[in-house]
TrEMBL record, chain A:
Residues 23-212 form the Electron transfer flavoprotein alpha/beta-subunit N-terminal domain. It comes from the Bacteria. The keyword Isomerase does not apply. GO terms for cellular component: cytosol. Heterodimer of an alpha and a beta subunit. It holds the Pfam family ETF. This is Electron transfer flavoprotein subunit beta.
Length: 259, 324
């Protein structure tokens, strides 16, 4: 079985994230970029299946040159090979572009199953897996807290705002996992050494036969027109409990008409 | 005038969900509002009347016996059918939920639409749909305009609340064929218990959250008691969820729910940046933490350095006294 894992590099949430107020683009120079935690977990799901069955695991990202670091990390964790879609024309790509480029790269590689994160920690769109599935005309089974992969079918439990569903589909299909799925393994020293020799292919848009003008010219796009930063919060009253703070809190709440 | 389509959510027991009011009010701002209902065959006259009362000019019902057993795709097919029926649709509005986003995503690919996710406001400016988003946990407000194709938008729940005039809508009913669609099958369904008697976390005016400092599942009762004394929703940090004190659906933060209540009370929560991303736009923030240097205190309007197990029981008792 051939599994493609979609991984994304994002600004480290431990740093302050910023938007460029002129273009609305993510300021990628400001914080450190790291592999998204949910991408690590997605890869873990694939690697567990590989451990059991010897499936082939390919990691795929679309992103700037620096995203290769995330791919090397995935290879060290145990992925067999990596694909990096890298093209200057993709700067500022929205979900429409991102999903069609990822779908083209997936088709280029061939697949039985795709595993993605339910949502990234920067865009938080939570739409890429379903959009890629539409491009590929395959089912999506998304937001799974648990995944079971068999020879030609995948099933799992899906968390929604209204409860839990169990879902199933024949392969090929796209799955996305939530942060309830298991923690990812750390790359071993041996893994790090091996990673250097594993294949990492870089594809441009023309390698995928995509010409942005003709491929995207007729679809709708969303363009950011203004960006405003909310004023920062300032700290207010702070008291140290000396026996009566609980009552003072109740009084504060009553004064604010929260009672 | 062009039409604006809305995807009406129906619960498994057949009731129209509360999001319909917001979607139809938003659609009225953009064009002639159309309610699209993806459902199993049956008598829908009550639904049609209800949707008319919420402002729908047309009700488009797409029926299939498989609607409840396939994931998301029936709604995508219903919207796509409505989109080709009303040749003039400029916008499609869907609730921003796990399923709503995916429906919107697949539909946008299908009809060549421009997609905006989790909008908190929309308007029509010179015939273009302009959406407002709040990103990075509310640190930034972003406005975007959609062009070059129909606008497909998911709207944050509770973001638009206005009254619109009732109508007697026309009804279009079609039968969907779902035999050849690529969709996952739903094999079972457990509805989330909604009868805690507490308000929904997402839209609650007051939220009381507990973190790792609460210490155990049993002691989380303290968080619930304060919430009940204030008529508040209960929330939690990821550390509290990971420790099994409470279910994941109540996690507040970057990878949980984003809330913006009038009052947010954090008990035994340190104030990690990923937690702040989910609550820092609350109007008033209160925290109780025994560490005077906890980062949460940089964001609080009222901070107490103290032990939650001595402070909060006292607060609950005082609140009861005030009431009488
Ligand atoms: C603050 C902010 C707001 C934005 N708002 C919008 C908007 O409203 N509309 C819009 O069109 N664009 C928006 N964008 C751009 C959007 O984030 C990117 O287009 C992004 O490529 C895909 O969306 P996502 O991160 O939300 O993905 P999600 O759908 O949340 O990602 C889910 C999963 O898809 C996979 N995936 C996503 N991107 C990639 C990738 N590049 N390579 C490999 N796998 C990937 C990963 O497995 C990931 O875990 C926004 C960006 C930011 C930073
Ligand atoms: C990609 C990513 C996404 C994340 N998403 C989220 C998210 O959505 N939501 C989220 O919350 N976190 C998220 N986190 C985790 C986040 O980084 C923190 O680990 C988490 O918020 C910590 O929770 P906490 O404050 O409850 O625990 P801690 O940081 O351990 O804090 C516990 C606090 O309780 C105090 N305390 C202990 N006992 C008492 C007592 N008796 N009385 C008073 N105070 C007491 C301590 O002083 C301490 O400050 C995410 C992390 C990552 C990497």
């Amino acid at each position: 079985m051939k599994i493609i894992v979609l991984v994304k590099q994002v600004p480290d949430t431990w740093g302050e994230r910023s938007l460029d107020s002129a273009t609305g683009a993510l300021d990628r120079s400001a914080p450190d970029n790291i592999i998204d935690e949910i991408s690590d977990r997605s890869l873990e799901v694939a690697l567990r299946h590989k451990d059991e069955t010897g499936a082939e695991v390919i990691v795929l990202t679309m992103g700037p040159a620096s995203a290769a670091v995330a791919l090397r990390h995935c290879l060290a964790m145990g992925a067999d090979s990596a694909v990096h879609v890298l093209d200057d024309a993709l700067a500022g790509a929205d979900v429409t572009w991102t999903s069609s480029v990822l779908a083209a790269a997936i088709t280029h590689e061939g697949f039985d199953m795709v595993i993605a994160g339910n949502e990234s920690t920067d865009g938080r769109g939570g739409v890429i897996p379903a959009m890629v599935a539409e491009h590929l005309s395959v089912p999506h089974l998304t937001s799974l807290s648990e995944v079971h992969i068999a020879v030609d079918v995948v099933n799992g439990s899906r968390e929604t705002d209204y409860g839990t569903l169990t879902v199933t589909a024949r392969l090929p299909a796209i799955v996305s996992v939530t942060e309830q799925s298991p923690d990812a393994r750390f790359p071993s020293f041996k893994g790090l050494l091996k990673a250097k020799k594993k294949p990492l292919a870089t594809l441009s848009l023309s390698d995928l036969s995509i010409n942005p003008e003709t491929s995207f010219g007729s679809t709708g796009r969303s363009t950011i027109t203004t960006v405003t930063r909310r004023p920062a919060r300032t700290a207010g009253i702070k008291i140290v409990d000396s026996g009566n703070a609980g009552v003072e809190l109740a009084e504060f709440l009553a004064a604010g008409r929260f009672v | 005038m062009s039409t604006a389509l809305t995807l009406i959510e129906v619960s498994p027991s057949g009731e129209i969900r509360g999001s319909a009011k917001m979607l139809l009010a938003a659609a009225t701002r953009l064009g002639t509002p159309v309610a699209v209902l993806s459902t199993t065959p049956g008598d829908h006259s009550e639904h049609v009347k209800q949707l008319g009362d919420l402002g729908a000019h047309h009700v488009f019902i797409a029926e299939s016996t498989q609607t409840d057993s396939l994931l998301a795709t029936p709604a995508v097919e219903s919207l796509a059918a409505a989109f080709s029926h009303f040749e003039t649709s400029a916008a499609v509005l869907v609730t921003n939920s796990v399923e709503g986003r995916e429906i919107a995503g697949r539909l946008a690919v299908r009809i060549g639409g421009g997609l905006t996710i989790d909008a908190i406001d929309i308007t029509l400016v010179n015939d273009r749909v302009v959406a407002r988003n709040s990103v990075f946990g509310g640190a930034f407000d972003v406005e975007s305009s959609i062009h070059g194709g129909p606008a497909v938008i998911t709207l944050r729940q509770g973001s638009i609340d206005e009254e619109v005039t009732a109508h007697t809508p026309d009804l279009i009913t079609i039968t969907l064929s779902l035999t050849s669609v690529a969709a996952a099958t739903i094999t079972s369904r457990t509805e989330a218990p909604t009868d805690s008697g507490r308000p929904d976390l997402r839209g609650a005016a007051t939220v009381v959250s507990g973190g790792r400092g609460v210490g155990s599942k049993e002691d989380f009762l303290l968080v619930e008691q304060l919430a009940d004394a204030l008529g508040a929703a209960v929330g939690a940090s990821r550390a509290a969820v990971d420790a099994g004190y409470i279910t994941h659906s109540l996690q507040v933060g970057q990878t949980g729910t984003i809330v913006s209540p009038q009052l947010y009370i954090a008990l035994g929560i340190s104030g990690a940046i990923q937690h702040l991303a989910g609550m820092q736009t609350a109007k008033v923030i209160v925290a109780v933490n025994k560490d005077p240097d906890a980062p949460i205190f940089d964001f609080t309007d009222f901070g107490i350095v103290g032990d939650i197990f001595t402070v909060i029981p006292q607060t609950i008792e005082a609140l009861h006294r005030f009431r009488h």
